[in-house]
Amino acid sequence: MADQYAHDEARDEPFRTPVIRWEESPGGPVLTLLDQTRLPAEEVRLVCADVPALVRAIQTLAVRGAPLLGIAGAYGVALAAARGRDVEEAAVLLERSRPTAVNLAYGVRLAADAWRAAAGKGAERAAGAALTAARELHRRDAEASSAMAGHGLALLDELLPGGGGHRILTHCNTGALVSGGEGTAFAVALAAHRAGRLRGLWVDETRPLLQGARLTAYEAARNGLPYTLLTDNAAGSLFTAGEVDAVLIGADRIAADGSVANKVGSYPLAVLAKYHRVPFVVVAPTTTIDPGTADGASIVVEQRPGREVTEPPGVGGGLVVAPPGTRAYNPAFDVTPPELVTAIVTEEGVLSPVTGGGIAALCARSRQVTIS
Ligand SMILES: CSC[C@@H](O)[C@@H](O)C(=O)COP(=O)(O)O
After folding, report:
1. Any residues with CB less than 8 A from the CB of 261 and at least 6 apart, and which?
2. Which residues line ligand 1 (CB under 6 A)?
3. Which of 35, 209, 241, 296 has most Cβ atoms within 10 angstroms of its Cβ?
4. Which pathway does the record list (predicted)?
5. What pTM does this model have?
6. Atom number in ligand 1 closest to CA 284
7. Selected catalytic residue, list 252, 257, 290, 334
8. Residues annotated in the binding site, as ranges?
9. Domain range spanning residue 58?
């Protein structure tokens, strides 16, 4: 079955449009985003001149993925401050725009705290402080990416000592499109590829919005990874065929007990992995760990419009796949309990999710903003 992997020619050019960038324009500062709803067809630049535009971009998933949502949220606060808008109101709007990825609240609060701390020094200094906080988060996320890639590859090599190269299954999109750097789970696969130790990357298409097919396959192709796309419901047959050595996913929120919220479809993969004795590894920066959420049941899972299922926007545009009036269940995420998670790779090292106290202690040490 190894021949099924597609070997694409390496195409190393960067995205034509930055994933996220603060820019000065004649009308004032703007936030420039790569519109992820238009990928892979075209790389289109989306310009947000105010917070309502950024909130729309977040809710339509033009900008998405936990670490990038944090960075976008922080820049959003800086944008409101720089444009003389009501920063407290902007922070609330941004934080509420999507509920599950804790990074969004983290980024918003980081920049808002910096703005508040400098508020006594005048509007300009306070706006500058918010922007500095956003830039610092952006930079730290890039550093976290490379650290996670290193720790993740070392873990894979330890868990899978055979010399034949790793066959990794991944879900959703966790690469450069969601991060200040090269991402989370995808960055580990990329590091394995660069080290000559990636035999193949299995990419779940990730229904209904197809982040795997549209975005991960796009990033894999651009980086010359040996990858193969599959429908989400084909994963079971891959495990049965012994074609998966490890599952690598990202996370949107990790509760203090080690429960992991990630793109819907992650939990079934964890169950499959457990049954087939395959490591299930979560790769996430410490900003995704939330000591303020006690357990998996306390994680708020975003419910998205049923229309995304009955008329999937990424599938042929306007294609209707169910009879008119069909109700659809469309949670954006599911929660994997800690006992199904082999390890959590962070920039600080590898954690065991069964030591929930250890996770909370790590958060307390590494975070400047507490989310509760
Ligand atoms: C590093 S990304 C981890 C998660 O944010 C990712 O797997 C995911 O679930 C993203 O969901 P999305 O709804 O596309 O924002």
Report:
1. 100, 251, 252, 253, 254, 255, 296, 299, 301, 333, 334, 335, 336
2. 61, 64-67, 101, 172, 174, 178, 183-184, 211, 250-252, 262-263, 332
3. 209
4. Amino-acid biosynthesis; L-methionine biosynthesis via salvage pathway; L-methionine from S-methyl-5-thio-alpha-D-ribose 1-phosphate: step 1/6
5. 0.93
6. 1
7. 252
8. 64-66, 98, 211, 262-263
9. 20-140
